[in-house]
């Protein structure tokens, strides 16, 4: 695992280097882990960035609840026009008048100032709302991780199906080449007409066309997979897994629904949005309460230490209806979250039950397709024995090969459907990021 991630890291850092030409062997679980990592799929990265922004907003809100301490130091040289400032009245003291101006004189002041909100329920509830907003952003990250995992799993299965089709087409070519050689030998010795050779050549050409199509499908599927993983398109991928099927891999539908209600990140995000809206609603309600602030400063002023200590209370007397409008908005948002949660639960249950039904149907089809492949293989083997014994021509062998190839294609399609149904069920239950081939 560590060596794999080292290679992939080099591919990401040097996408145009020779390292990008090395083959990377990748399992489904490894592909999902790469796509859902913090530096994986672009949507996951964006969701993580949004969560970081929400965390910064929460940290700022918390800072408003803590004391603000500032320090200042300054020295100035001043001249004041006292007459212009209103000090031009008689003093009533004989032979003493207020001078028209004073200065210049120096003024040195060094001071430490502290301000602290002593009582502000509205700010406290808004901070709780921002905490819920952060939790909602984290749930949104999980949502994008699940979506990315499901997309990667789908593209991985498409690539597996293409590789399986390539293997089946190559096996059919090998059989067709053997059939052509036998037909050519029989024609050379006069034991069979040239029609058998022509028929064998046509069969071989058809199999070669299927192989070419499967090879193109594999290239296209792996390009999509590289896009999901954010790797260089020059990377050669080798898939470590194979299309599999297990009859006992169908969970109980009620248990799956319960898992979905607990794990689906959409529900978690909506719950946190509801908590955020409720906290903001309370904050707006408490906005009519007074905000009590304590403040003070201390420092030397021209050699004399001076200080100020005080408490102030601020209350909103009239705001033109702004707070009432804000309360109406947050109350509607709480109601909206409640409606959305009910709707989400119904949709999620529908997705789970639909995916579960598709999984059961695919399981039955897989059993039938495996049986059909076995029977077609037996038919082909019998036809080949009869052909080699000279009892029949190769037309029956060609027909048996066609049916066997079709049965193989059908099984590949059914296995793909089975595994895709597993992906759909995992996505519906919110567990796509834990998927692996069994």
Describe the structure.
α8 (322-388) runs antiparallel to α9 (394-429). This protein has 9 helices and 6 strands; from the N terminus they run αβααββααβααββαα. The chain has a single domain (42-75, 107-431), classed as Up-down Bundle (Outer membrane efflux proteins (OEP)). The model is unreliable at 1-20 (pLDDT under 50). β5 and β6 form a beta hairpin. It has helices at 2-13, 28-35, 42-63, 121-188, 194-229, 253-263, 265-285, 322-388, 394-429, and strands at 23-26, 68-81, 101-119, 236-239, 291-301, 304-314. A 4-stranded antiparallel beta sheet has the order 2-3-5-6, with no helix packed on it. Strands 1-4 form a two-stranded parallel ribbon. The protein is elongated and about 150 Å long. By secondary structure, the chain is an alpha+beta fold.
Tally of DSSP β-strands: 6
* Shape, principal axes of CA atoms: elongated
In spatial order, strands of the major sheet run 2-3-5-6
- The radius of gyration is 39 Å
In what range is the share of β-strand residues? 5-15%
SS class: alpha+beta
What's the helix-strand series?
HEHHEEHHEHHEEHH
**Known CATH architecture:** Up-down Bundle
- What is the CATH topology assignment? Outer membrane efflux proteins (OEP)
- Catalogue the unreliable spans: 1-20
Instruction: List the domain count as a whole number.
Output: 1
Distance between the termini: 18 Å
Percentage of residues in helical conformation: 55-70%
Largest sheet: 4 strands, antiparallel
Mean pLDDT: 83
């Amino acid at each position: 695992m560590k060596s794999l991630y080292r290679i992939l890291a080099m591919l990401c850092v040097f996408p145009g280097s020779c390292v990008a030409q090395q083959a990377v062997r990748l399992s489904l679980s490894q592909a999902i882990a790469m796509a859902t990592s913090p530096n994986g799929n672009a949507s996951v990265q964006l969701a993580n960035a949004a969560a970081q922004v929400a965390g910064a907003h929460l940290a700022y809100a918390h800072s408003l609840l803590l004391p603000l301490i500032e320090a200042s130091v300054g020295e100035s040289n001043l001249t004041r026009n006292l007459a212009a400032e209103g000090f031009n009245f008689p003093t009533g003291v004989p032979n003493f008048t207020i001078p028209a101006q004073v200065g210049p004189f120096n003024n040195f002041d060094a001071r430490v100032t502290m301000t602290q909100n002593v009582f502000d329920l509205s700010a406290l509830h808004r901070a709780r709302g921002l905490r819920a907003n952060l939790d909602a952003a984290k749930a949104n990250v999980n949502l994008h991780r699940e979506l990315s995992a499901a997309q990667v799993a789908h593209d991985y299965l498409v690539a597996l199906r293409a590789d399986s089709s390539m293997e089946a087409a190559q096996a059919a070519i090998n059989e067709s080449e053997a059939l052509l050689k036998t037909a050519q030998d029989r024609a050379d010795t006069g034991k069979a007409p040239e029609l058998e050779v022509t028929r064998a050549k046509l069969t071989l050409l058809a199999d070669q066309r299927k192989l070419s199509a499967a090879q193109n499908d594999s290239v296209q599927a792996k390009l999509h997979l590289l896009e999901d993983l954010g790797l260089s398109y020059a990377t050669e991928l080798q898939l470590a897994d194979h299309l599999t099927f297990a009859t006992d891999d169908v969970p109980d539908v009620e248990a799956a629904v319960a898992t979905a209600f607990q794990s689906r990140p959409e529900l978690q995000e909506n719950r946190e949005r509801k908590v955020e809206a409720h906290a903001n609603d309370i904050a707006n309600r408490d906005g009519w309460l007074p905000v009590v602030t304590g403040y003070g400063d201390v420092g030397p002023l021209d050699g004399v230490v001076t200080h100020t200590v005080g408490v102030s209370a601020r209350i909103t007397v009239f705001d033109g209806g702004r707070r009432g409008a804000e309360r109406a908005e947050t109350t509607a948002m709480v109601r909206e979250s409640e409606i959305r949660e009910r709707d989400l639960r119904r949709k999620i249950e529908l997705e789970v039950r639909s995916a579960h039904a598709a999984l059961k149907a695919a399981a039955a089809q897989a059993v039938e397709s495996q049986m059909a492949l076995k029977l077609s293989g037996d038919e082909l083997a019998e036809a080949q024995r009869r052909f080699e014994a000279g009892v029949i021509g190769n037309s029956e062998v060609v027909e048996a090969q066609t049916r066997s190839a079709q049965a193989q294609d059908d099984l590949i399609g059914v296995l793909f459907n089975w595994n895709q149904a597993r992906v759909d069920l995992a996505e519906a239950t919110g567990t796509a990021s834990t998927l692996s081939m069994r």
